[in-house]
């Protein structure tokens, strides 16, 4: 499984928790330049996963709100 396929299977909470760990490790220092770059790249991938989940949640919320508004408008027109 490639990294992107693994990332697609991650849930929001899993990606967020791993991202928090990556940030902590970067902030703590003590890693080589190569390790820091790898952590940074992983953090970017995880941030994209989180962003996709949040965008999906926002789209679902917007659709539900639009549906509710449409139903209210239909009730008011009756």
Automatic annotation (TrEMBL):
Its EC number is 3.1.11.6. PANTHER family: EXODEOXYRIBONUCLEASE 7 SMALL SUBUNIT. It is found in: Cytoplasm. NCBIfam families: PRK00977.1-3, xseB. This is Exodeoxyribonuclease 7 small subunit. Signal peptide: none annotated. InterPro entries: Exonuc_VII_S, Exonuc_VII_ssu_sf. Heterooligomer composed of large and small subunits. HAMAP family: Exonuc_7_S. It catalyses: Exonucleolytic cleavage in either 5'- to 3'- or 3'- to 5'-direction to yield nucleoside 5'-phosphates. Keywords: Cytoplasm, Exonuclease, Hydrolase, Nuclease. Bidirectionally degrades single-stranded DNA into large acid-insoluble oligonucleotides, which are then degraded further into small acid-soluble oligonucleotides. The gene is xseB. Belongs to the XseB family. One of its GO terms (molecular function) is exodeoxyribonuclease VII activity. Its main location: cytoplasm. GO terms for biological process: DNA catabolic process. The keyword Protein biosynthesis does not apply. GO terms for cellular component: cytosol; exodeoxyribonuclease VII complex. It comes from Streptomyces aquilus. It holds the Pfam family Exonuc_VII_S.
């Amino acid at each position: 499984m490639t990294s992107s396929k693994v990332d697609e299977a991650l849930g929001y909470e899993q990606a967020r928790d791993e991202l928090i760990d990556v940030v902590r490790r970067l902030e703590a220092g003590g890693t080589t330049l190569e390790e820091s770059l790898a952590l940074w790249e992983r953090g970017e991938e995880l941030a994209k996963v989180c962003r996709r989940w949040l965008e999906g949640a926002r789209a679902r919320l917007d659709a539900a709100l639009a549906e509710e508004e449409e139903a209210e408008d239909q009730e008011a027109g009756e």
